[in-house]
Amino acid sequence: MTADLTHPHSTVADILIEALPYIRKFSGMTVVVKYGGHAMVDEQLKIDFARDITLLKFIGLNPVVVHGGGPQINRVLDQMGIRPQFVRGMRLTDGPTMDVVEMVLGGKVNKSIVAQINHQGGKAVGLSGKDGGLIEAKKMRILHQADADSPPEIIDPGMVGEVTRIDPQIIHTLSEKGFIPIIAPVGAGTAGETYNINADLVASRIATALSAGRLILLTDVDGVMDADGGLISSIDAATISRMIAEGIISGGMIPKIENALFALKNGVEKVPIINGKRRHAILLELFTDRGIGTEVIE
Fold it and tell me: Most exposed: 102, 147, 156, 174, by fewest CB within 10 Å?
């Protein structure tokens, strides 16, 4: 029998029995979770997320969290009269925006997640990419084509970075000592300059550096949708390219998909994209027979 965690008549025993083989299989596995969207705003979902991450650690997995913070950043920018701009899902970042990004991501948001997990009995430690030389970055240039009839143009997004190197030593050290690393996607250039980096990109590069068994990308939709709005349970690279060209996959889903493919091509076993607005979404994905969301495949 397949237990349904959302069904009121499912028993605790059904759920635990279904989860048992997965708990055994995944023991010792590193799971990188990109945490963002509505799951970081809704109070109940924040509690659920903290409990889920704490549970993963207690049952023998090694969770590593990379978080975003777009709504929180936008709120502060709005208070300062700064209008956010995006290209291909990437935030254009000038000097004043970078100051806000680092303050919000590395400060308020990161420490809030740490406090929530610690409150649930976990041992979380907040990091930014600057800590321990974790994330080295360089300036990103974005190739953007407005439409099929226009030539592509190179856009300078300001202090937006792309990852050039991950040194996972600090993550290994923390995980081995029983801590849960919570990482803000801010990196440093070779001259010490600070870069805002897309959290999906950071999560995929960290998952690759850690040879993670799973990279789980939380979003605000059930997964990748087809042209009619139906959920696609699995999607490969060829289909992804076609759907991006046709505009079916657009906006913030593009970097998610592209970074999922990068992770798969560089040693990560599986990359599901799931709805973080669904309670206990991570547990449903990892420990049930059916899973949820869209699995990206090569």
Answer: 147
Residue 283 and residue 5 in contact, taking contact as beta carbons nearer than 8 Å = yes
Tokens of 80: 């300062």
Tell me the three state secondary structure of residue 256: helix
State both tokens at 119: 């409150």
| Residue 101 contacts residue 93 (beta carbons within 8 Å) | yes
Is residue 8 pLDDT above 70, yes or no? no
Q: Which amino acid is residue 84, in one-letter code?
A: P
Say what the pTM is. 0.88
SS3 call for 180:
strand
Q: For residue 270, give the nearest of 18, 3, 30 by alpha carbon.
A: 30
Q: CB atoms < 10 A from the CB of 53, how many?
A: 26
Average pLDDT over residues 67-94: 84
What pLDDT is recorded for position 146? 61
pLDDT of residue 88: 66
Return the amino acid letter for 156.
D
CA distance 285 to 161: 31
pLDDT in tens, 174-222: 999 999 999 999 999 999 999 999 999 999 999 999 999 999 999 999 9
Contact between residue 251 and residue 89 where contact means Cβ atoms under 8 Å apart:
yes
Alpha helices in 27-168 (DSSP H): 43-58, 70-79, 95-103, 110-119
CA-angle at 162, arms to 220 and 87, nearest 5°: 55
- Contact at 8 Å (CB) between 216 and 29? no
What is the three-class DSSP state of 249?
coil
For residues 40 and 50, the answer to whether their CB atoms sit within 8 Å is no
Closest-CA residue to 163 (of 204, 126, 132, 215): 204
CB of 272 closer than 8 Å to CB of 295: yes
Structure tokens at 106: 């590395």
